Amino acid sequence: MISLRRLLRHSKDAELWDLERSGPGHWCVQSLQSSIRELRLAAGRALGAFLGGVNPPNIDEEILRRNRANVLGILKSLSDKNVVHLHETCITAWGQVGRVVPDEELNLVLIKLVEFMGHRNMIVSAFSFNEVLSLAHSRKTNPRQLFEPFWRNLAYSVVKDLVSRPQTTRMVAELLQMSVPELLRLLQTHALPWLVLTKKRDVIQKIAEARGDENIWQTCCDGSNLSAILSLLLVQDVADVDEFAMALFRNISPHFEPFSLVELLGTEPLLTALGLFKASGEADEARKSRVSRVDDLPESPAAYLKQTRNALNLMASMLLGDKEKRSKRGQNVGRYFQQHALGLTARLSEVINDSLGTQPTVQEQRLCIMAMEEMIRVCKSYVRIARPQVCAAGYHQSMQSLTEVPLDFRIHLIRTYI
């Protein structure tokens, strides 16, 4: 395995690099399940070499892209088997893969390492903890900055077993050098939607206590929390979204008994719409990509895109007056969000241009550009009132040094600007 890594460092042979055709590559993958511990670990360390970590000139990027997709799938399958003697190998392999994959594919790596941190065996848990520290050091960052762009997908995994098995939450808090209540306050907006969906009332109660709320419903009704919850519930593939969503809210607290979904949507329509446009933009980009990112979306990208657009249409239909709905059928989304076009664009531009000085991650800026693109695509001419603000956002970013802005970020920007 050591020799294979050295060979890849100096070889430009496409067949050797291509895991789908490479004999040494097949041997490396098969060795992950070897009965010999040393060989398994060596294979886990060698696997990262096939992903471009030691990428020499003139290796086709398409080969590396396929290798990354195949390796992520193989490691996910191997980890999900939950074979005791393979845990060490899987953690090592995830760590090596995390060192070389691009930022947008790091999500699954971190999810799996966090899952291993919650393992009942303290040796496995500690090994994963140390692997995350090593990964952060390798990527020249700290654990908090490493996790920050991925809280949307990681937060639920971190807190879901807080009551029954608090080890994961405590270890992540220790990793980030903060207390558990501080971690819960940090993750609340990202975790609450999934906690409501899965009816984990006891965990929501812990978040309420961390916030200092007297009642659990206050936690869910906080502006950003409520909009995030509504955004997720609206995209669920159920026969009656209204009944489904309100049943979940009432399961959390009887305080929601007298309210309807329309009333909840009316309290935070702007933030709820932002969440839906982000989800729709992300799904559309995954649909157009030849390889969707594993575990980023709950459905296939095309199906999830349809659900998010249906959710936007449902929200607009519910909030429009009956007279408006009768007057122009089929244009509910555009007509409703016309009144919010300037507000939506302003919110997105704040992140894209970092006008508030909050230093958002590149991933969050990219997501906001995709959301702006989706807003323009869905609402069409109804949002033309915001054209100057859209152009201003595009112009501000286009003036940045091209060496500082990732290529795919610029592509989204240009596509939206045009």
Commentary on this structure:
By secondary structure, the chain is an all-alpha fold. The protein has a domain at 270-417. The chain has helices spanning 2-10, 14-17, 23-30, 37-47, 61-80, 87-100, 106-117, 122-138, 143-147, 151-159, 167-175, 180-197, 201-211, 216-221, 223-234, 241-252, 261-267, 269-288, 301-319, 322-327, 332-337, 341-352, 362-379, 387-398, 407-417. 69% of the residues lie in helices and 0% in strands. Helix 7 (106-117) packs antiparallel against helix 8. It is globular.
Global structural class: mainly alpha
Query: How large a portion of the residues is in β-strands, by DSSP E?
Result: under 5%
> pLDDT under 50 segments (min length 5)?
290-296, 401-405
Number of extended strands: 0
Rg measurement, Å: 23 Å
Number of helices: 25
Described by the principal axes of the CA atoms, the overall outline is: globular
N-to-C terminal Cα separation, in Å? 49 Å
Report the mean per-residue pLDDT as an integer. 85
Helix content: 55-70%
Main sheet makeup: none
Q: What are the defining features of this structure?
A:
418 residues; globular
